[in-house]
Design brief:
This protein is α/β, with parallel strands linked by helices and about 325 residues long. It is built from 13 helices and ten strands. It folds into two domains: about 25-120 and about 250-300, Periplasmic binding protein-like II (D-Maltodextrin-Binding Protein, domain 2); about 120-245 and about 305-330, 3-Layer(aba) Sandwich (D-Maltodextrin-Binding Protein, domain 2), CATH 3.40.190. Helix 4 crosses helix 13 (about 315-330). It is globular. Keywords: Signal.
Length: about 325
């Protein structure tokens, strides 16, 4: 009798574990404090019943782990800066999936074979906690950040690892007259910035800006607007006068994913009208720009400010990334 009861309990526990697994989709690089993934994850669980555990990797760390686990994948889908999405495709860790509404997505925002699809984009600039500036003026240009008044105040994500950091490096490089084949201006800029004691974390530093630990973070507009309008911090977003870039973030289905069907549901959801609305209400530029409400649009900087933000050839940006990272590590880091 005891043996039968034990067997029944074990079977029940096994069934519960199977059920728990069945409603899960493991994401690499879905940080709750980044791009408001926290809200998106909650909506996914509520609306389609799929649990997506939070994950605080950056794009580089996510890709490295996907490659390391290639023979026995753990992740089901991944969220990456577009150049890392292209690298993931080359590393053969993604598989084809064309989500619902595929035909409506612009060709330059999706892989033609469905290996990755852009879900939203952001514009690089300065996220500034005005209260933490100790009386210094809000910086308006890349050159301003080199001034002694901002010593120890400027932060940026490690550009040899995090896509946001690489996007910042690309933005300042182009603003300083460089190209996707010549990153010397960026190297010179970061060397100069080093004399101002910058803070260079690997992961998203959003809470450190709110606390004032990092008064100026080279980051995306959506994080600055979130700080201002959701967290009610005295934060402003600045598009540097010399210019900047806007870049997409993409999502992709992992090759041989353990929970592929759940991952497909998640990908469909974040590209659905509801999912795109969540991105738009979090001040991201969704792939479906019709999802941007009048209220959200009014909270962005004016269009004439965004005229200084440019697109680039993202494939060339991806091709240059490895060489850039090696150069940055050797010359700056």
């Amino acid at each position: 009798m005891k043996k039968s009861l034990l067997t029944a309990l074990l079977l029940s526990t096994s069934s519960m574990a199977t059920f728990a697994q069945d409603n899960t989709a493991i994401c690499y690089n879905c940080p709750p404090e980044w791009a408001n993934w926290g809200t998106q994850i909650q909506a996914i669980a509520k609306d389609i019943g799929v649990k997506v555990p939070e994950d605080n990797k950056n794009s580089g760390q996510a890709l490295a782990q996907l490659v390391a686990e290639k023979a026995n994948p753990v992740a089901d889908f991944t969220y990456l800066g577009i150049t890392f999405g292209m690298q993931a495709d080359k590393s053969d860790v993604l598989t084809s999936y064309k989500p619902k509404g595929w035909d409506k997505i612009p060709n330059d925002l999706k892989d033609p074979n469905g290996k990755w699809t852009a879900i939203h984009s952001g514009t690089v600039g300065f996220m500034v906690n005005v209260d933490a500036l100790n009386g210094a003026p809000v910086p308006k240009s890349w050159d301003d950040l080199l001034k002694p008044a901002y010593k120890g105040m400027v932060g940026y994500l490690d550009p040899s690892s995090a896509f946001a950091g690489y996007a910042v490096a690309t933005a300042v490089n182009l603003a300083k007259g460089g190209s996707l084949h010549n990153f010397k201006p960026a190297m010179n800029y970061f060397k100069q910035l080093n004399t101002n004691s910058p803070i260079v974390p690997k992961q998203t530093a959003y809470p450190r800006v709110l606390s004032g630990e990092i008064p100026i973070l080279l980051d995306y507009d959506f994080n600055a607007y979130r700080a201002k309008y959701k967290d009610k911090a005295n934060v402003v977003f600045v598009i540097p006068k010399e210019g900047t870039i806007k870049v997409p973030y993409v999502i992709g289905l992992v090759k041989n994913a353990p929970h592929a069907e759940n991952a497909k549901k998640v990908i469909d959801y974040v590209l659905s009208d509801k999912g795109q609305q969540i991105w738009a209400d979090s001040w991201l530029r969704p792939v479906n720009e019709k999802a941007i409400s009048t209220k959200a649009k009014a909270q962005f900087l004016p269009d004439h400010e965004y005229a200084r933000a440019h697109t680039v050839n993202y494939q060339e940006m991806a091709d240059a990334q490895k060489v850039f990272s090696q150069q940055y590590i050797h010359e700056v880091k």
